[in-house]
Amino acid sequence: MVRRTRLATALLGVVLLLTGCAGAGALGAGGRTLVIAIVANPQMNDAIELSDRFERDNPGVELKFVSLPENQARAKITASTSTQGGEFDVVMISNYETPQWAANGWLENLRPHIEASPGYDPDDFIPSIRESLSYQGSMYAVPFYGESSFVAYRKDLFQQAGLTMPEHPTWTQIAEFAARLDDDAAGVAGICLRGKPGWGESLAPFNTVLNTFGGRWYDEQWNARLDSPEFRAATEFYVNLVREHGEVGASSAGFTECGTRYGQGQAAMWYDATVMAGTNEDPSSSEVAGKSGYVAAPVRHTEASGWLYTWALAMPTVTENKRDAWSFMRWMTNKEFVQTVGEEFGWNSVPPGCRQSTYDIPEYREAARAYAQPTLDGIRHANQQETMTEPVPYPGIQFVGIPEFQDLGTRVSQQLSAAIAGRISVDEALEQSQRYAETVGESYRETQ
Question: Which of 91, 137, 196, 281 has the most Cβ atoms closer than 10 angstroms to its Cβ?
């Protein structure tokens, strides 16, 4: 059984010096200040822009956002929450952290707050998303948006090349399409794939490739399997595809960089989070709006291969002003917020993959007609039974749901990135990665 309750030294190993943050619950010039740690991406930035409305409706409460890129946000939030530092009243975390941190007693049980909020309707959350943020039957975080993964592709470029994208492509087909569509002269890569180090960056898409290729991080006895033929085949495929037909500077490209390249027309395909579609289809920021199709995550030996992920809001147990903190969390994750974002920023900006009612809004259905159903299908099929070939002793699809994975995954992603950059071979990358994984696996075998 996975030991979610481990107060891992792996978590403490990511502790960074926290600077520039007022203490949580501090008294600001206008009254109470809520300090909110948030990941910097377009959907979260929309929430920040709308935050003055929350302050207007909650006199005496001032919001202070600490907005950082994903890797930095993870480290800072983990450092503060794991040490019970109290710097933040509300933190943005995912379904990776939530069950583990709830078991450790680091997060507030939200059930009493939800039950005391008429109209909030937690049953409206997509079931798999809601369950991924729960521990022992209670929610410990509420989702801002949910996602799986799929392929965006340029319909115009496919048509010009005489190619047809199937609704359920294989990775072999994707590689063939990338080779056909790679056009250095036009500045168009065959495909964009993350190569940036980080357990939540390059390892997210890579792990879905690994799963469908039949690989796994550990067998049921916690033996590391990074030196297995399946793991090697997946790694060689991913590295070769990015090196031969991926974007320029792929070893330092993450979700944001790939999104920029695809939106500027510099890639024929992009495999990544389903949440990308809203940005792709926004004519104010994308040069390819209206030109993309969306299909299921590619497979090899499985029926499906997409991931399951959600960015969500949680409240550290040390938060002093729990009532105001919950009021903000409720405001940012309720049905009315979805309506406001659609009306203010356009329906492609709505946080997707979270509330089922979002998909009943006529304006959203029209704006998201190209990607709404593929998003829901991806989330529906994102489970270990459909995306993996062998049983594993850990939860998670695109991550290994143990505390040590923050460090282990980042170390392995650095090896993967170095192989993509051509600084080391795949053999060297896997040899070092296997050693990292063996150390972690040994500690789990000792307590079985």
Answer: 91
